Amino acid sequence: MSEFIESTIYKLEEEKYAILCVDLIILDTEGNVLLGRRTLEPAKGRWVLPGGYVQITDDNIESAAVRSAKTEFGVDIELTHLVDVMGDPDMKPVADPRFYAVQVLYTAVIKKNSSPIASSYFMSEGMWVKPRKALWKKLGFNHKMLIKSYLKKKSEEQLIPIKRTLYTQHFGQVHDYLKNNYMHTVVMGIVINERNEILLAHRVQEPFKGAWDLPGGHMYAHESVEECLKREVREELGVDCEVGDLFHVYSDKGMSPKFSRAMVLYFIRIKSQEFVKNVEMDDFGYFPLDQIPDNLAYHIDGALKDVKDFIAQR
């Protein structure tokens, strides 16, 4: 077990947070998916999808995905779609038997000028197979579930294009967070009213005290992604909500001064407009998407721009 994993597990036990992982559906021109035979425990000898742990040295989750494909198969990839975000402590089989993991699943293709697929320390061999046939293989971890999610999202035309606005100020640099341990999962809600205005809440606490933010917060190891968002909305707005479609994931280096974090965004429907001031938020407001306040928390302006573009196109 690597030093990174050992230190991460210690932190997870200490703080009760989940660890964020990336998994890949790498496809060829005929729609086959790339599987690798794993050389290490857990799941040694089983066929698995490529992927791995997101590290705070990665510029974002997407760069972690590219790094994982290169490390495990020696190939250069281009991400095409975000498929799903999966995290549930009651999930069977589990994503990783060693600790609670939140998985971000992408599709990708191998670049034309890439080196051919090669074995590595992590994978003894690779194999291309039709996704539905892959479900009959002895797959490791919960990767059968991941392939099923991909097939479902594809059939429902719910694959999310990879393109999003990036926060690139700290890319390629060593960034010192207040807590240099692991990438935290943060789940946030997008509320759009009938006038296509977005709901923001005014922060009381540091960091970004006095700035406007989306409702949401940190995910703990005892809750699912959806449970986290419902709890955070209840804490920060004082109302209940229903979780809708996944919008995107924003995880660029330096978006938070405290720690590396992945902001998972969902559309939500709130059940009341009777917001309650609390220790985290002291004001609430709906804003036209072309009149967003300048003082925004956690550099979410890029995400709000993407929401604006999405609403305009639907």
Task: Write up this protein.
By secondary structure, the chain is α+β, with helices and mostly antiparallel strands. The chain folds into two domains: 3-161, Nucleoside Triphosphate Pyrophosphohydrolase; 184-313, Nucleoside Triphosphate Pyrophosphohydrolase, CATH 3.90.79.10. It contains six helices and 15 strands. It has helices at 3-15, 61-73, 131-134, 143-155, 225-237, 301-313, and strands at residues 19-27, 33-38, 47-48, 51-53, 77-86, 101-110, 123-129, 160-161, 184-190, 197-203, 212-213, 216-218, 241-250, 261-270, 281-288. The strands form four sheets. A five-stranded mixed sheet has the order 4-1-6-5-8, with helices on both faces. The mean pLDDT is 94.
Total number of β-strand segments? 15
CATH homology superfamily of the largest domain: Nucleoside Triphosphate Pyrophosphohydrolase
Low-confidence stretches: none
Distance between the termini: 47 Å
Our count of domains comes out at: 2
Number of alpha- plus pi-helical segments: 6
Helices and strands, in N-to-C order?
Answer: HEEEEHEEEHHEEEEEHEEEH
Text of the CATH class of the largest domain: Alpha Beta
- The fraction of residues in strands falls at 25-35%
